[in-house]
């Protein structure tokens, strides 16, 4: 990709073949666009209904569209700059061309909510080929209809069971304490690496049981108990095993790391978080009881810190759906075959929805309920089933972190409290 970009930006010679290819490609795209626009509007009664049309915008370069600019901004200090630039010109819903497909981008909370809550008759998941090859065709991220509902329900029930929550609580405490016990004053601590190692081990143990049946050396995977009696294929189970491991390797550790970063920049929030967690520790010590998952989840300000971290961090920036037929939402036409990119980051940083959107302010959640404008893990029937697990693990990590260590913006490494 780097070589391709350099070659494209530095070349000064344009051959006749290149001109012809670009011209023909443009013609094809224009014909498809005109055909879709004409065909979609003919089914409406224009005498009684206002006309609808494809949102304004640009499809960018042939084939590559605006993908390069989008990815470049995504790795910058201001990832939403690409979307904000187009939103200022075309409005909250606009057309583009990213990841190889003409796409309607939604930074409008109402439009995104309709897309997320729609069933497979209107929209199905659509992701870049590199991702689909990684997670497999049978992943819960890609399957549709009754099978998706059934698998989503099974996985959700598994993670919400009191037995699994109790085990994950104990394992998380164990691995966090073992990790932190190795930290030293003169040692540089890489929080994301540490949290990644902890979260990954916890999830592996939750999903995989190394018990062997009597007289049989083959280990039994615990995840198979989720699907027991469901007559599901091995490929489907293995693909979803991979899918469930991704949060343990990526999303949850990033959430923990960003929480530490934002807290280090906000001494007031850090102080209140530490006080809340120290109070819980003292209460449980008096009772002589260990902390349970319900104790951790009762830490209200800690939960507000996590919610604010999710809002500002936008670990899941958005989801992509493909229209299975022409769909109209709020006067916008989404043509059949086009993709919709519901971009959560712009919604979560919208000043009309959140005061001081770029300020880390956990207290906003004391007065603001988590409504339809807050979608850090998606929404609808495809809401990530591990959301409670992510919160639990992050709460446990923050609890042990703030009661054992002192840190702030003036210190780039953690300092144990003596």
UniProtKB/TrEMBL annotation:
Highest taxon in the source lineage: Eukaryota
Name of this protein: Cytochrome P450
GO MF: heme binding; iron ion binding; oxidoreductase activity, acting on paired donors, with incorporation or reduction of molecular oxygen, NAD(P)H as one donor, and incorporation of one atom of oxygen
Ranges that cross the membrane: 6-30
Gene3D superfamilies: Cytochrome P450
Keywords: Iron, Membrane, Metal-binding, Transmembrane, Transmembrane helix
Pfam families linked: p450 (PF00067)
Record GO biological process: brassinosteroid biosynthetic process; brassinosteroid homeostasis; secondary metabolite biosynthetic process; sterol metabolic process
